[in-house]
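Lab notebook, bench 4. Still working through the backlog of constructs that have no structural model yet. Next entry is a single chain of 634 residues. Request: give me the structure tokens for it.
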Amino acid sequence: MVEETRPASVRRPAFSRLTVLRRLVESTRAPIELQILGRTLLRAALVGAAAGLVGSLFYAGVEAVQHICLEGWTGYVPLRAGGEQLLQESSKPPPFRPWLLLIVPALGALAAGAISVWIAPETRGGGADSIIEAFHQHNGVVRKRVAFVKALVSALTLGSGGSGGREGPTMQMGGAVGSLVGQVLRVTDRERRILLVAGTAAGMAAVFRTPLGAALLAVEILHRDDFEADALVPSVLASVVSYSVFIAFFGEQTLFAHAPTYPFIPAHLPLYALLAVGITLVASAFLSALRAVQRTTRRLPLPAWCKPGVGGLALGLFATPIIYVIGPRLGQPGQGLGILGGGYGAAQIAITGADWFPLGWRGVELLALLGGVKILATSLTVGSGGSAGDFGPSLVIGGIFGGAFGRAAQMLLHDPRIDPGAFALVGMATFYGGLAHVPIAALVMTCELAGSYDLLVPLMLAEGIAFVALRNRALYEAQVPTKRDSPAHREDLIFDVLTGVRVGDVVVHDRAYASFETRTPARVVIERAAATAWQDVFPVLDAQGKLVGIVISDVLRTMAANPDLGALAIADDLMVPPVTVRESDDLQKALRAILEHGLREILVVDDQGRIVGFLDEAEITRVYQDATASQRPE
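Model written out:
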């Protein structure tokens, strides 16, 4: 039988669509395990070594700029964490010059803003959002200059007193190194994205000294409800190498000093749950302040390169009077208790306390005050476009309020078993883990910081509460909900769609088609095939009507161009073994068969082997279009 005209629904799809589908099938032939065990792991180790070196140089650079500008010029005395000291402090610190402290943060931020805007605008801000965007939107491509520029502008911003962390910049620098290695070695888009993630992990591991937590953070931070499983093993390896490079320069110790153990006490779980609720409120307040500063900064009628300087000036005007008042009362003029810079020393006080730190409710009040001041200081720095990370301040703010909560609970309940340091550590993880949607990474990082897994259960409880409470609040705007929402995983989405659709749900039944018997003369085969308007594959049946082969249009065109070749030939001479799929098969299997055999359509048979219809490439393409329609930007 011969069909009249080919319906519009089965017209040939555009070449670009077929190319995407072909690449999809070809990409599924090589399992990721082979890449991980081979080239990708070697490249990840190279990325880790390079990121560790870059992170080490950046860490030393920030300390050097801070030692000269902040400590030497203004007399500001940073409060440091237990494992943070690099340069030897002078036995007699310089005199405190508050008038100079008013403008130094502005000068550093202004210089950094000018360099960023003129050379690499993507280096403004914390850095994590830029890396997340590069992964999802740019196939892991980061410009080669980013690592160097980010190191320079972040050293200027942080070294002059900007309230931010080192980890965000090193995440961007490490990601840039991973992307650079991928570009130089000309790897695939998929491998380059993996190296970007591995570099991000390596940058974090270098300065925060939590290699496993850094690897988990890098694969978890890209999505709100998902993670990049393919990049986990390369990220772990890159983190280990980077961490090893860093401790070779600066020694092996955690960033924060802490108690030897934190015994698990089930009766304290309600307190940790209450802490989690309080921390989520503080995290929401911090995010609101940060977004408010960002909105205000965007509305300023000033050139973009000036805006970080404005934020630095506001920071100096806001922080200097507080430092001027607090320092003398603690017996140390110029002591800012972590208001400027990373502020890790303030979190250290919340964890372990200090001989000079006030006890009782006065200490709780001072911690609460410092936490509020740190929220505003960080918002002014990062929200105005200053090149400083939001990771470090998030941990500091969470730790400060966690420590204040623990001290208050200890006094209210008169329970000597309550260790405020445990609540400070849980507060750190809860604040950042909930706001950045990285609960597992934050949990593991805190366990690494504490040197044990004693706090595992309280952390799990608090992280779970924060994860639910902060579902609609996101620190990183470039995050996407899941892989299905990421342009980087568009082909994975189509693969999932094709494997989830049965051939029987798509094939058009009862379409008239031409078929031949094995002894049909070639001349008749050519004539009848030429009369069809849509068919490219012609079934050949034996005397009992059983499918024994197919004749494809390419063979018929060759025979038509050389009539003498087919003078004595029959259909049996022209056919090839049949290529079929069953109605119960999925579209991915059908597409693979079509591409492997160079067909434009494929026969669909039932469980008894009877022909029930044809599946055209156009039907598969239509499923592809429908699946991606909701993913396209409006």
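Notes after review: The two ends are 45 Å apart (CA to CA). The chain has 24 helices and seven strands. Flag for follow-up if needed.
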